[in-house]
Specification:
This protein is an all-alpha fold. The chain has ten helices and no strands. Helix 1 packs across helix 2 and helix 2 crosses helix 3. This is Helix-turn-helix transcriptional regulator.
Length: 146
């Protein structure tokens, strides 16, 4: 890797860290791009190349991930939606269902004792939503107990 590529990765990491830290704030691509010291178009292309998804998709995945933890703790769907920075309950529910494989209400109603008993770092790995493979809580519980 050349120095320019390494510098770009460092700038992209700054923007990704911003998303991870400030996911509940209203973030748009121009704001993220400013943190990466890039133009919005260049930032979007480079982010997708480095992390495999668009900046907005990454942001929404982080929001859904945080919402899952709030729902497991018993928070209402509407409150979890607002707490993670989403302003539209319908859009939040659609994205949640797409990533997790069930509606937020169905996820909240499921049994989460096994996940709650896991150390947070283990639960985070096993319940992280991804576009390729929705979370299947039954499999997480079974795998955790084996």
């Amino acid at each position: 890797m050349d120095r320019l590529h390494l510098a770009n990765l460092a700038h992209l990491r700054r923007a990704r860290d911003l998303i991870d830290r400030e996911y509940a704030r209203p973030l748009d691509v121009p704001t993220m791009a400013r943190h990466a010291l890039m133009s919005p178009g260049h930032f979007s292309r480079e982010f997708r190349a480095a992390y495999g998804e668009s900046p907005y998709s990454y942001l929404m995945t982080r929001r859904v991930e945080r919402a899952m933890a709030l729902l497991r703790a018993g928070m209402s769907v509407t409150d979890a939606c607002m707490a993670v920075g989403c302003t539209s309950l319908g859009s939040f529910s659609s994205r949640f269902t797409e990533l997790v494989g069930m509606t937020p209400s169905a996820y909240r109603a499921r049994e989460h004792r096994a996940v709650l008993a896991m150390p947070a770092c283990v639960a985070k790995i096993h319940t992280r939503p991804t576009r390729d493979q929705p979370v299947r809580i039954g499999e997480v519980v079974r795998d955790a107990l084996l």
